[in-house]
Amino acid sequence: MNTKTQQDNSAKACEPDAIIDEALVGLQDCAQDAAEASQEAPEAPAALIKLNDAVITGTETEAGNALLETPVTMMLGEMWEQRDKRNTQDGQWISQTRSWAQWIEGGPGDKNNPAWGLSRHNVSKAKEGPCMVLGSSTENARKAVAMVNMSAMGLDIDSGASREAVVAKIKSLGLFCIVYTSYNNGKRVLQLKRDHVLQKMKIK
């Protein structure tokens, strides 16, 4: 009985149908192994899309593209220490109108002028220097009562929230924004001049 069973099994294994069945089982096993391996393997990180020094994130939309083509007027000048002669005075701020795409793209600098544009992150040894007002005013003056319109809202995040948390919140709201680090980014202590503090607090 045992001998016959072995002979029958041996004969069956040599039949063409048996060979095909075993081959199909082998292919199924390989496909299952590959599927399991693909699930276990970590996803490759998405390639970063960069523009100058900036990293672009989010989903491209028609509304976003239309916004980039929208012309906006902003003012350029320089701010240094109080009473510094290099400060741009009221009436001397330069109003320029460009599309958001042009303001973001900016342009390279040269030996006399730094690179400019919202996608270019110049690292300076001083906080003071070239700056931008996110709107236009009457008589090119940099003061609240003279402002005609604002092209954007600038927020200085000093609450202790991490940059990652802020970006995540902005994405969840579906907003268009430009995020950048300022001169004192990451510092826990800020040194202020005593006279400036007393002057702001109107203490004599």
Summarize the helices and strands and which ones pair or pack:
Elements: H1 2-13, H2 16-40, E1 49-51, E2 54-56, H3 62-68, E3 71-79, E4 94-99, H4 100-105, E5 129-133, E6 135-137, E7 147-150, H5 163-173, H6 194-200
Antiparallel strand pairs: 1-2, 3-4, 3-5, 6-7
Describe the structure.
The chain has about 200 residues and is of the alpha+beta class. The protein is built from six helices and seven strands; from the N terminus they run ααββαββαβββαα. The protein is globular and about 80 Å long.
Strand order of the largest sheet: 4-3-5
- The CA-CA distance between the termini, in Å, is 114 Å
How many strands in all?
7
Question: What is the general shape?
Answer: globular
Question: Biggest sheet, open or closed, and with what strands and sense?
Answer: 3 strands, antiparallel
Q: Work out the radius of gyration.
A: 32 Å
Query: Mean pLDDT, nearest integer?
Result: 80
The helix/strand class is alpha+beta
Q: N-to-C SSE series? A: HHEEHEEHEEEHH
Low-confidence stretches: 1-25
Share of helix among residues? 25-40%
Percent in strands: 15-25%
Give the number of helices.
Answer: 6
Index terms:
33% helix; 204 residues; three-stranded antiparallel beta sheet; disordered N terminus; 7 strands; 6 helices
Short description:
The chain is an alpha+beta fold. It has helices at 2-13, 16-40, 62-68, 100-105, 163-173, 194-200; strands spanning 49-51, 54-56, 71-79, 94-99, 129-133, 135-137, 147-150. A three-stranded antiparallel β-sheet has the order 4-3-5. Strands 1-2 form a two-stranded antiparallel ribbon. The chain has a two-stranded antiparallel ribbon with strand order 6-7.
